[in-house]
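Regression check, magnesium ion case 614:
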Amino acid sequence: MTSTTIGILQRGRRLRRGWRRAMIGGLLALLAVCFLLALMLGQSVTPPADVLRVLLGGDVAGASFTVGQLRLPRAVISILAGMCFGMGGAAFQVMLRNPLASPDIIGISAGASAAAVFAIVFLSLDGASVSGIAIAAGLGVALLIYALSFKGGVAGSRLILVGIGISAMIHSFIAYALARAPAWDLQEAMRWLTGSVNGARLDQAGLLLLVLLVLGGLLLARSRDLEMLRMGDDVASALGVRVGMTRMTVILGAVGLIAVATATTGPIAFTAFLSGPIAARVVGSHGSVLVPAALVGALLVLTGDYAGQFLLPGRYPVGVVTGALGAPFLIFLIIRANRTGGTL
Amino acid sequence: MTVDHQLSVTELTAGYGGTPILQGLNLDLLPGQITAIVGANACGKSTLLRVMSRLLRPDAGQVTLDGGSIHRMPTRALARVLGLLPQSPVAPEGITVADLVSRGRHPHQGLVSRWRRTDDEAVAAALDATRMSDLADRSVDELSGGQRQRAWIAMALAQDTDLLMLDEPTTFLDVSHQIELLDLLCDLNARRGTTIVMVLHDLNLAARYADHLVALRHGQLLVQGPPEDVLVERTVHQVFGLTSRIVTDPVSGRPMMLPIGRHRTRAESP
Ligand SMILES: Nc1ncnc2c1ncn2[C@@H]1O[C@H](COP(=O)(O)OP(=O)(O)OP(=O)(O)O)[C@@H](O)[C@H]1O
Ligand SMILES: [Mg+2]
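Current build output:
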């Protein structure tokens, strides 16, 4: 009897694992194709052979500038920042068992963005020091929300409501800071409000890659415990998970990812919020959602930026496109919570 | 047979946010026995289980396992000895029964170690014991309340601990599944010597299946002992404020409580 059940278990696991691998492979392939297309397409079309030669360091008349200087930095930063947003957002959503508990909704991205604006406008800093300040601010906001909503345990919906309030306050600060900086143009302002890869430079990639490796690696190392938190604090802890410690590690890692990406591209609207749920739909709820969410995040930013530049009438920063995608999903979640009588 | 573990609660005071729920409670769990905790709603039964399984820190006093404070033991090591099924757990969205039950193996897996044959065996045995094997690939969201409860019980069984605490495991179960579950726990206790502690609302089932009854009132231990000593009219009145008659259960020979309300008694009818 047990042996037949073992058979059922193994078959089910093989199926789900196979599906998951296929889907992750599919996402990777899709990302590779989109990356190539982003390098080929634009105002003019560059043939793949020329793109390849430029990538390998060759000098191609006409293509070296458009591909090497314009398209490549944009595409690379889009992918890396998208991965940071996707993974960081999904980690928060899993940890708090609620898709609304995403850093871009509860004010953590806004905090990092405000700190970046502050560092640039008032302190005239740039580069890694801006990222450092953004991380500190992101963590500060995360801990503030945590402390304000802590009442003998963290309740998801209280945390979300507190976060939304704080997010609104921080947005008004960003608007104020932007108003105080008359030298800035609309492009720059948009970057800090909704996120944009317009100013992307290849030298920004190093830092993003580093945090992805270090903090992303940290999150992946804890992904099994993180996954257990979905069972609820009591069950997780009865099954031997150190809940408080896991939560702190996840907050640290996820906020770091979000903050560094935000310091580079601004808070690309709703990318953190959308990636996890989309990834979960695609790969199923077997195993950790972190890696697929990172891939979905990269796809969202990459394709969103392309759409904002070339597919829409006029040119819009990527945050406007992802924002337009995210808003209906947000409304859907709230309506669903209302219908099922659930909490936020 | 497993090693007998001794879990003791001494001078325990615990509660939420400063308001004590349990006060000055002393309790030694009998190793290798089945203990049922009974008491009125909100008297602190779940709170006691949560403190005893280190989900809640005591404000004063301590809980020890084999002499050492459980709040100082490594979480994972403790989870291999002591399992707890809380009162109303919530399953993650979209998770399958097999996946849920497999998570009971979490404490047995190292940080890097892979899923092993023994893990599969434990999960399969738990699914079989709870008659959930046929539903293994179903999503937990799509189960009935009783099936869901059995999936959770299977998860607790897969954890394979010497000490198992269950908070109202029979809720949502129909009468035959209630008996089946209690029989299953008895088997576990008899075959492996698992120490079982459960909160039960049905006094008659508690008296029938438990070796030892613990009656709580307002966060304090009122009486404990074998069912014959605890399930008496005076105690039922003290704990529940209910008049009753105790008879001998013709099936088990254990005491059985018949509640006496204001209506539907022989004296009432002409
Ligand atoms: N998380 C919590 N925060 C604050 N108070 C709580 C919490 N959980 C329980 N309480 C309170 O503690 C008291 C005891 O609750 P407990 O859950 O231990 O009761 P119980 O005996 O298990 O009741 P029931 O039979 O209804 O399950 C109740 O008054 C309850 O309101
Ligand atoms: Mg209870």
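Comparison notes: The domain at 7-259 of chain B is CATH 3.40.50.300 (Rossmann fold). The first strand of chain B starts at residue 7 and ends at 16. No diff flagged against the previous build.
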